[in-house]
Design a protein that fits this description.
Blueprint: E1 2-4, H1 8-15, E2 28-29, E3 32-34, E4 39-44, E5 50-57, E6 61-68, E7 77-78, E8 83-88, E9 94-102, E10 106-115, E11 120-123, E12 127-128, E13 133-138, E14 144-152, E15 156-164
Length: 168
């Protein structure tokens, strides 16, 4: 498994080259996990925070996208194979981190949810295969996930979160 860190400056430079999202003041890019194949993507919610993921999985995560607080879903990044899934935080909770397994691809993915008023955490189930090495990554205290960054082609090659204290 390869762990990559993208600083805000690097991510902003990529946005200038045709990313699908607009960087906002205070965005914090977490480490990405997985391989180096596929094309780079950056995709953020329109309003509020993420509350989970939807996508497709088999032995790997074939495709992934965000779910935001109002129920809107982002467009899928990745391929068309696998079984559809939806992983959502409980009502009133937001995505604060991700966990799973990754090697050359993102093998397995789950959401770490947080209740903002109490800072209690809860993990969703994880979807995908059992290959790769375990990873777990959280937004900084006081932040929630507002988007996804990574690489995708026929599968989700690499994935990380974009965090912000203020949402969108």
């Amino acid at each position: 498994m390869q762990k990559r860190r993208l600083g805000t400056i690097v991510a902003l430079a990529v946005l200038g080259m045709g990313g699908v999202a607009t960087a906002a003041a205070g965005d914090h890019y977490l480490a990405t996990y997985g391989g180096t194949g596929g094309a780079y993507f950056l995709d953020t919610v329109s309003h509020g925070f993420m509350v989970g993921f939807h996508g497709r999985y088999g032995g790997y995560n074939d495709a992934v996208a965000w779910i935001e607080q109002d129920g809107a879903e982002g467009g899928l990044h990745g391929g068309t194979g696998g079984i559809e899934y939806r992983l959502s935080c409980p009502s009133g909770w937001i995505t604060h981190g991700i966990y799973g397994r990754a090697g050359g691809y993102v093998d397995q993915l789950g959401s770490i949810c947080i209740q903002q008023s109490t800072q209690s955490e809860q993990y969703t189930s994880a979807k995908g295969g059992s290959g790769g090495a375990y990873f777990e990554e959280r937004c900084s205290p006081g932040e929630g996930a507002v988007g996804l960054q990574g690489r995708s082609g026929g599968y989700v090659d690499q994935l990380g979160l974009v965090c912000n204290a203020n949402g969108r």
